[in-house]
Automatic annotation (TrEMBL):
Spans annotated as Disordered: 123-163
Topology in the lipid bilayer: Multi-pass membrane protein
GO terms for MF: metal ion transmembrane transporter activity
The UniProt record lists the keyword Repeat: no
Protein name in UniProt: Unplaced genomic scaffold supercont1.5, whole genome shotgun sequence
Organism: Fonsecaea pedrosoi CBS 271.37
One of the GO biological process terms: zinc ion transport
Residue stretches spanning the membrane: 6-28, 35-55, 169-187, 244-263, 275-296, 308-331, 343-361
Pfam families in UniProt: Zip (PF02535)
Keywords annotated in UniProt: Golgi apparatus, Membrane, Transmembrane, Transmembrane helix
Length: 419
């Protein structure tokens, strides 16, 4: 129960810290240039976290599973039984069983006790023979330098098995990354193909002599309703799809981090959970900050972005507690299943790395395409002069530096905190 209490404490701290880090862009009253600057940093943090933290974390966890299996095989090799050639001393006179008499205490000598000895004519270079069964047998390793043929065969089998595991790890790394990337691509694109083809918005032809009457007799309420209906039918649905894909990718990654924390809590070393906890928090807080800044940049309201943040903050604790319960129900804390647990943990982390790569790529596209979206201010065939002005200024060197700073920020945070 001590492990469960420690895990619950870490999960509570993780959820609260993630929420506080992500609420900063929502609570601060930021102007449009400042919001764009912060969202650019958040986009860079997403890219840097996916390349610097998540992919190395998954690869290291996957290969650590083979190290656990190799250590277990080495232990079995040291405990491997070896044959020895046993000869009895000739100083003992063979007597029939019925003629054996009890010796006097004075006749007993510590040097006259029969025991296993090596024959004087034994050649350590040549294979020995036993008096019962001739043939090649193993010889006892006396000086620690010799190695029997059985040990050579055993070690060669281990090397072949280790090579097979390494090759399979290389293959599974690509499969997990591709599966995560394809999942997020389908989550982003399938809703667009599943909905019916939207009708092209009708163009209103207005004569020049009626242009003044158009704006004089049309109330502001009618224009607002027309504009709102147009936005709701086109941009609103697209914004929800983009924000949903971004949040799903981060939630999957956070759940995989929670699985890693829950799996480490089942180990015998209690300090491993704290190491993984601090390693997760290093990139979880910037990821929460980047999530909310990107969601606000995509056009979501603060209330909706706060709901996405709560979902992201609870994903890792839920994954950790679920993994701990599943491991204890199935007996996963034992040493025989430690290799399997680490392998699946590494696969889930690499899967989340693929999803995170798609989210980072999508955030970069959103950042580069925001200028073109801001300059398209026309609606229904006529252009209002007030709407033709770009809503955002031209990207500057400051934005480029902010993006690069966000990309290298996870690299500085990783120094001294290896997973």
């Amino acid at each position: 129960m001590d492990g469960l209490f420690t895990l619950l404490s870490l999960c509570i701290v993780m959820a609260v810290a993630s929420f506080l880090a992500g609420i900063l862009p929502l609570s601060l009253g930021l102007s449009q240039p400042k919001l764009r600057f912060i969202s650019t940093i958040g986009m860079g943090v997403l890219v840097g976290t996916s390349l610097v933290v998540i992919i190395p974390e998954g690869v290291e966890t996957l290969y650590s599973a083979s190290e656990v299996g190799h250590a277990h095989a080495q232990l079995k090799r040291h405990l491997h039984a070896r044959e020895i050639d046993i000869r009895w001393s000739q100083s003992v006179t063979a007597q029939p069983l019925h003629e054996i008499r009890a010796r006097e205490p004075a006749d007993l000598s510590p040097f006259d006790v029969p025991g296993p000895v090596l024959p004087s004519d034994l050649d350590l270079e040549a294979p020995p023979r036993t008096p019962t069964k001739p043939g090649v047998v193993g010889v006892m390793n006396v000086d620690g330098k010799g190695e029997t043929q059985a040990d050579k065969d055993y070690s060669s089998g281990e090397e072949e098995e280790e090579d097979v595991h390494k090759e399979s790890h290389h293959a599974w790394i690509g499969v997990a990354l591709l599966a995560g990337f394809m999942l997020m691509y389908l989550v982003d694109k399938v809703p667009q193909y599943s909905q019916p083809a939207k009708q092209k918005s009708r163009t209103h032809h207005i004569a020049l002599n009626n242009l003044g009457r158009r704006f004089n007799f049309t109330t502001s309420l009618d224009r607002d309703e027309e504009s709102d209906s147009f936005i709701d039918s086109t941009e609103g649905r697209h914004v929800q799809q983009r924000s949903f894909a971004t949040t799903i990718g981060l939630v999957i990654h956070a759940a995989a981090d929670g699985i890693a924390l829950g799996a480490s809590s089942t180990a015998t070393t209690s300090g491993l959970s704290f190491v993984i906890f601090f390693a997760i928090m290093i990139h979880k807080a910037p990821a929460a900050f980047g999530l909310t800044s990107v969601l606000v940049k995509q056009g979501l309201s603060k209330r909706t972005a706060r709901g996405h943040l709560i979902l992201f903050s609870l994903a890792a604790p839920t994954g950790a507690i679920f993994t701990w319960l599943l491991a204890h129900l199935l007996g996963g804390g034992q040493s025989q299943s430690a290799q399997t647990t680490r392998w699946w943990t590494g696969m889930l982390l690499l899967f989340s790395a693929g999803t995170f790569l798609y989210v980072a790529m999508h955030a970069m596209q959103e950042s580069s395409g925001s200028l073109h979206e801001g300059m398209n201010g026309n609606a229904n065939g006529y252009i209002d002069g007030r709407e033709s002005t770009p809503s955002e200024p031209k990207p500057s060197w400051k934005d480029l530096g902010a993006a690069c700073f966000g990309m290298i920020l996870p690299l500085f945070l990783q120094v001294g905190h290896a997973h």
